Prior knowledge:
Elements: H1 30-34, H2 37-40, E1 44-47, E2 56-57, H3 61-64, H4 67-73, E3 78-85, E4 88-94, E5 104-107, H5 112-123, H6 133-136, H7 149-153, H8 193-198, H9 219-233, H10 237-248, E6 254-257, E7 270-272, H11 274-285, H12 299-307, E8 311-317, E9 320-325, E10 328-331, E11 334-339, E12 343-348, E13 354-359, H13 369-383
Parallel strand pairs: 2-4
Antiparallel strand pairs: 1-6, 3-4, 3-13, 5-7, 6-7, 8-9, 9-10, 10-11, 11-12, 12-13
Amino acid sequence: MSNDKLKSEANPSLVVLRxxxxxxxxxxxxxxxxxxxxxxxxxxxxxxSDLVLKLNKKHNKKIENIPSVKKVINHKxxxxxxxxxxxxxxxxxxxxxxxxxxxxxIMSITKMFVNLFIGExxxxxxxxxxxxxxxxxxxxxxxxxSATIQNVLDMxxxxxxxxxxxxPYTSSFMxxxxxxxxxxxxxxxxxxxxxxxxxxxxNEKKDLTNLTVFSHYKSANTDVIGVLIEKVSxxxxxxxxxxxxxxxxxxxxxxxxxxxxxxxxxxxxGCLISRDFLRFGLLFSRRGxxxxxxxxxxxxxxxxxxxxKGTKYMELAKDxxxxxxxxxxxxxxxxxxxxLGGQFLAINLKNGITASYFSVIDxxxxxxxxxxxxMINMMDEIVNQKL
Length: 387
């Protein structure tokens, strides 16, 4: 049979349907899509650790009696909540349609890997955060060339890349075909991550300066830093990720989305089961000390991340702000990150309490600001408990 007689169709899970969204991200499909994204994504890799961090259950009733916990775990968006310290699971709760073996996308919480990697590069004196991106990436476009690494890490620049999920045509959706979350308009388009990032331009004024104190959140920022980490270190980002997986002692696989050439989507490509999500957070609580005498990250850079001014990411209550600093979010003694559609990880670097939360927001945009504030305030309350 000749090739021109073979019938085919565009992959139905990845075809863009209504509101400029692929099937898996539509509200009625999103809950199922989030727990199957590691299979839906066109490109990817997986890493699994040889050694597994043992976790012992030691239920703490104080957590389940926190009013904000009771409220959020009974919400229709809820999937799982785990709280741990050292090697103990202090609280573990799942929705009826979720289990400890269910993988789910961690979305932008993937960005926290970058904090580990940059810390190591600083320890080895291979990088200067005050230097411009173009010093290390001479082919980068005008959207990043004159920005300092520090400002990119803090979501503190402006350029043509936008990430407003209430706008179905925000430019960040153009990023998704590059890493396989949707099909490109032209199936002959084989653009990779680095080519896409190099194409991002400055705004009309050609000035990348953020004139406000608030974050200009752009996932592309983190991916630019990912490319930079490879170039500066001479070590593939894939290997950096594997080192962290093995230090964390993950039991199941970390599924990581990539571009078609294998470049990890470090801004949002990760998927984990709930207990490994907690294990990932506990790695930060130990300041990068891993199983088997492994070590990732930098103790000093964790401290610097808390001290760094950063940018104001979200107002959680009157005069209470969550800040963006060094590819993490921070408040008081804890660092963490949110993920699009209802995920959060919080790690108190002072007392070691770590909380990991999965949910799926089913609004058309995948955002719900009131729910998000409730979720983050709950996490803040949990990790600041005296347990």
